[in-house]
Specification:
- By secondary structure, the protein is an alpha+beta fold.
- The chain has five domains: 90 residues, no CATH class; 164 residues, Orthogonal Bundle (Transferase(Phosphotransferase), domain 1); 42 residues; 125 residues, no CATH class; 102 residues.
- It contains 22 helices and eleven strands.
- Strands 1, 2, 3, 4 and 6 form a five-stranded antiparallel β-sheet that branches.
- β3 and β4 form a beta hairpin.
- α3 packs parallel to α5, α8 runs antiparallel to α10 and α16 packs antiparallel against α17.
- The chain starts with a helix and ends with a helix.
- 31% of the residues are buried.
Length: 542
């Protein structure tokens, strides 16, 4: 089942763990236990005297980009990690060893087809920062603009492909031998992660993501996104505006600048929920290494973000159900939570709503013993999904990235301001967004979208009516269907005819109501016609 390279990589992973005194991870992993006899062949731990957090960090760096990414993701959750381990993992944000400047220059020369000195007025050989997948250098364009040049690490694609093979092998094992895999869908989860991390390897894609985020927050006082210089971008090279700000992890510098820390933390939450629900395009890698703070006005600190290699989107359906779940949770409407889980398809349709409601209540009610400022959004999401899994809820791969991002932003916000009340900031955004989705304006927007179809239905209505009248008059309106396929066709045609008729009638009522309101002195018939028309049009859409 496994390729030789994959098996060798798994053995090497164990070797690294053992060398750093982390062999308990192997002994605790059931399917790796048969390989414990190999411990005798591995070198003894070289740094067993070092703190556990440092050993974990060094092991992750040695294992490569995917493992560094994992360390970065969990480093922001200081509420879940011991302080010493969190401090060590935080260094993964910007202390990954760089690759030599000569290799960087060779990459640029090959990408541009000319010397780096001809492309840039200045290129600084010393790396500005190094990460698991890329590193950045400062430079200046020929017109004097200060820029950041981002370069993929040499051979990083091969390293990632190798470790993805390992992850898929482990997922196959789980899928075959682990009972919960049917609902947890490990192969789909790994496939989703593969798409996410492979997208990071195309810097043209990241450049496009950055440009989109910049448009979304144009004129905003919350977030600044650097300018992209597309003429200098290549799949392995990205050039962007250099921004100047205080790293968000530098609390001493933020306090020295007089930064309103509470406002800063609340703004981070607002940025996240605005991206998820307003823009449906969110920065999914918001760890401290990618966030800076502009403090031109200490009372109105402004975020500046970089590294948009990972972005996320949700379907409109997932957006609505997710927002509805959050609102229902804080309203303690457990029946609605259960109903939303069934309507969304996250749990099987045959699930008894009363049983799911009771299970959700038993999990969520104790949470409200805490003040709202101590309730974790991310933990709420996890607890709800864990409860739903008892009712055969399948893992939703599209929500995994969102869950990770919410963990990051919540951990970052609580680290800045431990008293942060996420609900105070998020509730107005969610409430207003939901109102827009189901309110009168949303209804009018849907009608406006359907106007071309309504127009076509009105054009066809006389012909449809004439045809049906003739068929009825001559007693020809019947079907003799014996084939299931023909029956399906009949049903679809009948449904389309009904829909067109409803749209035509609804449009007529809506237009008539508008005319009555415009021309008549008595308005109530007009409003009645408008409501009837809108209802008929919405029925025609379903």
């Amino acid at each position: 089942m496994w390729r030789g390279k994959t098996l060798l990589r798994m053995i090497r992973i164990q070797r690294v763990l053992v060398r750093h005194g982390l062999d308990e991870i192997i002994t605790a992993t059931h399917f790796l236990r048969p390989l414990r006899f190999l411990f005798a062949l591995f070198p003894k731990a070289k740094d067993v005297g070092e703190p556990l957090g440092k050993r974990i960090r060094l092991a992750l760096v040695e294992l490569g980009p995917i493992f560094v990414k994992f360390g970065q993701a969990i480093s922001t959750r200081r509420d879940l990690l011991p302080p010493d381990i969190a401090d060590e993992l935080a260094e993964l944000q910007d202390r990954v060893p760089p690759f030599p400047a000569g290799e960087a220059i060779a990459i640029l020369d090959a990408a541009y087809g000319q010397s780096v000195n001809e492309v840039f007025a200045r290129f600084d050989r010393e790396p500005f920062a190094a990460a698991s997948i890329a590193q950045v250098h400062t430079a200046a364009l020929q017109d004097g603009k200060e820029v950041i040049v981002k370069l993929l690490r040499p051979g990083v694609r091969e390293l990632i492909d190798r470790d993805l093979d390992v992850l898929f092998a482990l997922a196959q094992l789980a899928d075959r031998y682990w009972a919960p895999s049917k609902r947890l869908r490990p192969l789909e989860v790994v496939a989703e992660y593969e798409k996410t991390i492979v997208d990071e390897l195309d810097l043209m894609r990241e450049a496009a993501n950055t440009a989109q985020l910049k448009r979304n927050f144009a004129g905003s006082d919350l977030l600044y996104v650097p300018e992209i210089y597309f003429d200098y971008c290549r799949p392995q090279v990205m050039v962007q505006e250099r921004i100047y700000g205080i790293p968000i992890s530098d609390m001493d510098a933020l306090r020295d600048a007089g930064t309103n820390i509470q406002v800063l933390a609340e703004n981070g939450v607002e940025i996240f929920f605005t991206q998820v629900f307003r823009h449906n395009f969110f920065h999914a890698d918001m760890h401290p290494g990618n966030i800076f703070v502009i403090v031109d006005d200490p009372e109105k600190p402004r975020y500046a973000a970089v590294d948009f290699g990972i972005v996320g989107t949700l379907s409109p359906t997932d957006q609505r159900y997710l927002a509805g779940n959050f609102l229902a949770f804080f309203d303690r409407d457990y029946h609605k939570i259960a109903k939303l889980h069934i309507e969304s398809g996250w749990v099987p349709p045959e699930t008894r709503i009363d049983e799911l409601e009771s299970a959700v209540r038993s999990v969520c009610e104790p949470i409200f013993n805490k003040p709202l400022s101590e309730i974790s959004f991310a933990q709420v999401m996890i607890r709800l999904f864990e409860t739903a899994r008892r009712f055969n809820m399948e893992i939703q791969p599209q929500l995994i990235l969102l869950q990770k991002t919410l963990f990051n932003i919540e951990g970052l916000g609580r680290e800045l301001y431990p008293q942060l009340d996420l609900w105070k900031t998020a509730h107005p955004i969610l409430r207003d967004w939901m109102a827009e989705q189901i309110g009168p304006r949303a209804t009018l927007d849907r009608i406006r979208e359907d106007l071309p179809q309504i127009r076509d239905a009105l054009r066809e209505l006389p012909g449809v009516v004439r045809y049906l009248s003739e068929q009825i008059a001559h007693d020809k309106l019947h079907f003799d269907v014996r084939s299931p396929e023909l029956r399906d066709i009949r049903d679809r045609l009948a449904a389309e005819q009904k829909q067109r008729a409803r749209l035509a009638i609804g449009a007529t009522l809506f237009v008539s109501g508008t005319l009555v309101l415009t021309l008549a002195s008595v308005t109530w018939p007009g409003w009645l016609l408008l409501v009837a028309g809108a209802g008929t049009l919405l029925a025609g859409r379903s």
